Structure formats: structure tokens, C-alpha cells
Amino acid sequence: xxxxxxxxxxxxxxxxxxxxxxxxxxxxxxxxxxxxxxxxxxxxxxxxxxxxxxxxxxxxxxxxxxxxxxxxxxxxxxxxxxxxxxxxxxxxxxxxxxxxxxxxxxxxxxxxxxxxxxxxxxxxxxxxxxxxxxxxxxxxxxxxxxxxxxxxxxxxxxxxxxxxxxxxxxxxxxxxxxxxxxxxxxxxxxxxxxxxxxxxxxxxxxxxxxxxxxxxxxxxxxxxxxxxxxxxxxxxxxxxxxxxxxxxxxxxxxxxxxxxxxxxxxxxxxxxxxxxxxxxxxxxxxxxx
Length: 289
Known about the structure:
The chain has 289 residues and is mainly α. It folds into three domains: 4-47; 52-122, no CATH class; 140-288, no CATH class. The chain contains 16 helices and no strands. α13 packs across α16 (269-288) and α14 runs antiparallel to α15. It is flat and about 70 Å long. The model has no long low-confidence stretch (mean pLDDT 88).
């Protein structure tokens, strides 16, 4: 049986060079392998992504995933490796690792060498492929989001928990305090959520335990949002989850993985997917105005 990663890459090549004659092109292969290639639900046709795969993957990671990897290298080498990374990652890593200076004008060959070393230490799952090659799903738009956009979505999802709390809140002072400490777009989405029926019974938000601390409110809501996102992702392909986790920082990535499972949760995941899609559409409209 052909390795699934190889089947995907083979399908990309067929899409690019033999889009109308894939069946005949695969006649020389064993029937099972040919069928596995043809069964790949993939329309992408750019094979160059498989060539630049290592560089693209390392460059797409949140810098926090690279910290423990870089710490495995001798300090004398860390500066050179950091210099091979994109500027956004390089600046963050220099600060975290307290690297005072990095070499300038590294050759492209040296950059490729250092990035390959990082890739080997990262050791992604053997079936991992470029995110562009993954099968499309109802949540594929998430893989196009930046870290800050995903964090925004997490906070938006938590508005469903807050809406349920507000429905039973009688103390108007608490109500006023909550609205005062929500960003305007969160207030707007909260009003949307208040008009929707919540079908999931989640634990009540203990607003009284916050002692008037806005930071505690922010943290409480973020934890709830991560829970909803993790459960909305249940049933998505593990490679999808791997890419999404590594777009986020290590803390949020691990928290999402904790709530994820490979099988969709009946009567829960589909409803949370709807909430997530609603939040995505809301933020898209906000960014367009």
C-alpha cells in the first residue's frame, strides 16, 4: 500500500501535468495504489510547495515552538540559526533566548541548512503535508487565519458563555461592569449571541469570583473560548489540528489539543461548528468595514 503522503503528492502532480488523463497515467501502478491516488479529494496543483516544504513550515510556526528546539543547540550556533529565520520570528527569539547579535548576510545555502536542522529537530508527524494539500472541510478557513485572528475567534466564542450568564443575571451593577470591560466588537457579538438559543449546557461563569478584576474576566472567557474551539474541531483531520496548533503559541496549542478528539461529538460538535462559522463571518464583516 502506498504511503498516504506519497499518494497526496502524486495526486498534486497529476492535477498539474495530467489533469485529463489521470486514470491512463496510473495504469502501470498496482490497482490499489492507483485507486488510493485517485481517491485523494485534492484539487491543488502546485508541486512547488513540496519542494519548499521545510522552509515554509518552519517559517509558519509560532516562534514559541522553536524556543525549546533552539535550546538544544550550542549557544554559539543559536545566533546563526535565528538569522536564517524570517524577521518576525528572529526578533522574538533573540529576545527570549537573550541572543545579543546574529550574523548578517547568511548565504541562501547556509539558511537552507540551518532551517533543515530545525525541521529535523521539530520532527513533525511523518504524514504531515503542506496545509494547502489538506482536504477541504467546513473549517478550512481557520488555516488561513493568523495567530491574532484565531485568538480573536476564541474570545468571540466565549461570548456564547457570557450570553448564557447574562440571561440569568439580576444584579445590574455586574451587568454594567461586564459591558464596560468588553471591547466594542465583543459587545456587538455578545448582542448577536443573546438572540440565539444555546443548545449546549456549559458550567455557569462564576462572575462573582472575579472581584472586579478585568484581567480575570479576560482569562476566564479565553479559557471558555478555547474549550469551545477544541470541541468544534473534533472530527477534523489530525494534520489539520497539527497545523492549527502550531500557528498558535505552545500554551494555546496544547490547550486546544487537550479538548480535541478525532471523532466528532454528536449533538455538540456540529452546533459548535455553526458558532465558530458565525464568529468567522462576523469578524470578516468587521474587517471589511
